[in-house]
Structure formats: structure tokens, C-alpha cells
Design a protein that fits this description.
Elements (H helix, E strand, L loop, with lengths): L10 E6 L4 H14 L5 E6 L4 H7 L5 E4 L2 E5 L4 H10 L1
Length: 87
């Protein structure tokens, strides 16, 4: 609890698609960081949703933290940890 309130689990969404090597690298980074810094993680295949495809077809991988974009194309462990600690 923080300030008497229950702490909400942070949520990471990775927009990806099959065969995207940059996406694979970012997903590995997210999974490594998650071992020491708990958060919810959801990888979303942009081919499954026409709106996601329209928005991100030329931009993946894109990483959102609680709905706010924190990375596009690349993400290091240090960058992700820094964003998590700011929340």
C-alpha cells in the first residue's frame, strides 16, 4: 500500500507481429525485467486487430506502460526499469 491506497499492478503492452526481429528483442527485454520488477504483460499481435494494424503497421514494436507509449523500435532494460520506477 502506498499512502493508504492499494497499489495497482503496472501494465505493459507490446504491439508486435510474427517475424518481427526487433519485436522479439524487445519482448525478451521485457520478460527479463519482469523477473525482478513485477508488472502485467500483454503482447498484442497487430494482425489480430484492424485498428492496431492501421495504427502500428509501420511502427512496431511499440511499448505502452499503463497506456502511455514509452518506446518504439527498441527498448533497453535500463530504460524500462527507469520508466517503471517513475510510476
Amino acid at each position: 500500500m502506498r499512502d493508504g491506497r492499494a497499489t495497482k499492478m503496472l501494465q505493459i503492452i507490446l504491439f508486435t507481429k510474427p517475424g518481427c526481429h526487433l519485436c522479439d528483442a524487445v519482448e525478451q527485454t521485457i520478460r527479463r525485467v519482469r523477473e525482478d520488477h513485477p508488472f502485467e504483460f500483454n503482447a498484442r499481435n497487430i494482425l489480430d486487430d484492424p485498428a492496431d494494424f492501421e495504427k502500428y503497421q509501420h511502427e512496431i514494436p511499440v511499448v505502452l506502460l499503463d497506456g502511455i507509449e514509452i518506446a518504439r523500435y527498441r527498448l533497453s532494460e535500463d530504460e524500462l526499469i527507469s520508466h517503471l520506477l517513475k510510476k
